[in-house]
Specification:
Blueprint lengths: L1 E7 L3 H14 L3 E5 L3 E5 L3 E6 L11 E5 L3 H13 L3 E8 L8 E6 L5 E6 L3
Parallel strand pairs: 1-4, 5-8
Antiparallel strand pairs: 1-5, 2-3, 3-4, 6-7, 7-8
Length: 121
């Protein structure tokens, strides 16, 4: 059910050093690097650190739930909006994360960023 977890960090370089050391010791490795994000995992990127230039707050980081396809993403997004969630990114392709990556973003009632994703691998 959980596809990946992302934490937002205030200083990506500082956090990279920490997570490189900790996750390497646990058998993980870097599977994605970009100017504002690094992702770790064993077989696929399952733990992300992202620098967005904001301080910790309710929307600090996100939790991603796996959907079985685009219809699942669309349905979960609509259900979330209908039940107290707020839009933080309409359903659509996210080619910056992979050629078949399709996702939507919501803010839960407390402001936590929730992603619903299909085809992330």
């Amino acid at each position: 059910m959980i596809d990946h977890v992302g934490l937002e960090v205030s200083d990506l370089a500082r956090s990279e050093r920490f997570y490189d050391a900790v996750l390497f010791a646990l058998g993980g490795r870097r599977l994605h690097e970009g100017p504002h994000a690094v992702a770790y995992g064993v077989n696929w990127p399952s733990f992300w650190i992202v620098e967005r230039g904001r301080l910790p707050a309710p929307a600090y980081g996100h939790l991603a739930f796996a959907a079985s396809g685009r219809a699942g993403v669309d349905g979960a997004y609509a259900a979330g909006l209908a039940n107290g969630g707020r839009d933080d990114g309409r359903p659509g392709r996210r080619p910056q994360y992979g050629s078949s990556y399709y996702a939507a973003y919501l803010l839960d009632p407390d402001g936590m960023r929730i992603e619903i994703v299909a085809n992330s691998r």
